[in-house]
Amino acid sequence: MRLAVREVLDLAERCFSAAGFPPGPARAAAKAVWWTELYRGSGVTTLHDRLSALPAWDPDALTRTDRSEFVWAVDGSTQPGLVSSAPAVDLACAAAARHGVGIVHTRTAPGDETVPTLGHAAYAAAERGLLSTVLATGGVGTPRTVIGRPDDPHPVLAERELDAPSAGHAALAAVARAGANDRQDNPLTQAVFTGGPETEYGTAGERLLGRLLHRSVAPSGSDSRVDPGFTLVCLDPDHSRHSGDLRRVVDRFLDGGELTRTFRPEEISDRVATALAEGVAVKESVWRDVFERSSAVLAPEFEGSYRGAGFNINE
Q: Which InterPro entries match (predicted)?
């Protein structure tokens, strides 16, 4: 069967609302599900597979463990990435708008099955005009890197799955663990500056970003420590802190062949047009389960709540 585009978003939002999410977080999580459906074709399936876990998801369970001008450390170790990604975007974007760089390092629950939705964090930050990188480790599946760059009418996104946590993720995780008192100036300098010769780019800002991007797809060493979770890096390319053309650095990296999948605006525009015209294909059994949860049919634990609910439930 096929669902209208709007129905996918509304069903997802109602599922999160039925699980107790406040309106804002429910809408944000639903947008991540919809993005995953549009970009990966698996948003509704991801939501369906986690329906039984929804009652344990709680946006209020996230806690800030450390903060500096540039870096936030967030403990979401009891929650999946889908719960913590929207707050991470808000925090990283706010820091980037003020300081030019915003980094949020978030621990997530082991065995997280929502990792494919984390690309939406890179997308959402790029929609706000920022260069973004998501470095994810742990959960179900392999570590991955997703890079976003603003474009019209949709951001450019590119990703790569890795065999081990990336060197960039390990370096930024170490910076986050160091604590605010040990962070000096730009955290990217601490994480990726090597002091070696540089011939590819002419300015310090371009060199730092270039090194971050290359390390985001390079494997970390066996002695590196990266807890399950993700790190979101946002850069404001127009901020006075940065020298050089940071957009050019990202473009050259995207064209360099180190990423295995790229989503261009024209491709996404075609997908959007197709989805609007034809709807989204889902299995009827999946739709029934999601619809029941979104309607809170099965939420109240008393017999009367099941009567007259449709789908031959208790009738």
A: Mal/L-sulf/L-lact_DH-like_NADP, Mal/L-sulfo/L-lacto_DH-like_sf
